[in-house]
Amino acid sequence: MIDFDKTAVGKVIRNLRLERNLSQEVASGFAGIARSHLAMIETGAKQPNFETLWAIANAFDMAPHELVRLIEIQSQKNL
Questions:
Q1: One CATH from 3.40.50.2300, 3.30.70.100, 1.10.10.10, 1.10.260.40 for 6-77
Q2: Residue 59 confidence (pLDDT) above 90
């Protein structure tokens, strides 16, 4: 069983954004969310709901399950 790790969510999203050389402004625009919302997700101050995770995955041109899997992997690393 993998415990939920709120820091893993933000870390994965931030790393994906940086790997793609996207600013928070551009990435949040692709996802259809406010830049401040993305910033809070990346810092762990706010947790995205599934609809937001879906939109972020689409912004990174990946399936939602791929994003969730990366978060699972990061959660295991953080143990």
A1: 1.10.260.40
A2: yes
